[in-house]
Model the fold of this input.
Amino acid sequence: MSPPDAPESVVVIDDDYAMRLSCGKILTKMGLPADTFEDGAHGLAAVAATKPAMVIVDLKMPGMSGMEVIARVHEIDPQIIIVVITGYATIDTAIQAMKCGAYDFLPKPFSPDELRLIVNRGLERRRLALESQRHEIEQTMLKRRFVTFVSHQLRTPLAAIHQYLDVMQHLDQASDDPARRREWIGRCLARIEELQSLISDWLTLARVEGGTLVRERVKVDLNQVISDILRTYQETAAAESVSLEARLPASAMFVCGDRNCLSVLFDNLITNAIKYNKPGGKVTVSGSRSDGEVVIAVADTGIGIPEKYRAFLFDEFFRIKDDEAKKTTGTGLGLHISKRIVSEMGGTIVVASELGAGSTFAVRLPAWSEPGCSPGPAGGQNDAEQEATTHCR
Amino acid sequence: MTATVLLIDDDSDFRAAVKSLLESHDYKVVEASTGHEGLRMVAEQKPDVILLDVMMETTVEGYGITHSLKYSDEYSEFRHTPIFMISSIEESPDDRFPMSAEVEMIRPDWYLSKPLDIPKLLRLLDEAVGARKGAVA
Done:
């Protein structure tokens, strides 16, 4: 396969001298390096050596036929675009050639414009194919790195729990220390919760990556979703001496989406706001409608987010390292998942922050309107897929 | 005389468990949670043995520390301090790092995996400290 940035060159194989000459001229004028050959054998040798972007070959030649050239070129590099030149009224053979791997055909006689058109289209097609191939490789590499990273994240708490228990067992043989045992049992339980969170987040993310997250599009009242979440975390917040305030309109705030996903979206923001707060601090969730959008803001009175981290905030696994132990727990996936959900719903999420004062995350989502919820933007799923149960958790 | 063990690992729970274990076996344990802090502690505390986590956070910091201790002039005094490298993954350095430079730095039998096997750890530490005391004397 030729390297991505290699100049696109063309090989022309035709036993007709005049054809070789004129094709060569036209291609050169297009800025494409072109080599011409009078038979398949020589042409193929050049293809193997130079790995051109395109081969233009006459179907009817003495010696090696155009069809055979097609097969051989395909063997050398399936990414090479093949255009066949055909004689008068030989559509059948042209179609035959295309079934064997030719991209397009050019019936004689053809004008320079016709040649140019086909060449440009063919090269464009090849560029797109290479692009998507590169993207696939990149995705595979990312996936592999992801797996390594997550596996480490899972092993770390397990190793700590196992070590505690092993040492506890060992030390208990010699002496009894109930205080230490109590403390270590507490720590093991905390690490187990951490593990469970991670696995849960990881699964959610896998669904997001797999594109199966936001499928259901129904009318959802965000007022209700958020009120439910705030109710759920009432006690947790109180335990952290953080108060929760809702400034939501009396009327419903309807959007089109998946209720579970919207719940995950705001759950992440609200739990962050509680976690990254000061004792005696506050979390304020406000909502409003404007210009066909629903805007929800989650504000905390925490320590704020340093400028240098803001660009990375929504990245996978990103966590701001803090001296206090509690702030380094968490998977670093919450904001990433939230952003993915927002994006899939055609909305935006931004953060504003002031060091020492706090941060505010603002989510904008398209508001529901008549005539109702249509299939999603990234959609195109058929009804069968839509009926399949997909959950964010 | 009590031997000093320097434990470099970013997981505070893991450190707590290992520290209790070693203290109950009459070792003095000093801790560091990052590579930088670890190097500083080496100079300050002059440990008899170092237990070093290979992968702290997402970078493979542990090898960098070992490299500094073994090859840089700044730490020449500590070139022969035994270093036990600890990994969450059961994998030999050969498998993980086919580059010979890294592998040469580490004694294969001093590459341990978490959770640490207690009798094995105690035995290895005992041998390593014993050998050093012998050499120094």
Residues 50 and 72 of chain B are 17 Å apart (CA to CA). The interface with chain A takes residues 11-14, 16-18, 20-21, 24, 55, 57-58, 88-89, 114-116, 118 of chain B (CB under 8 Å).
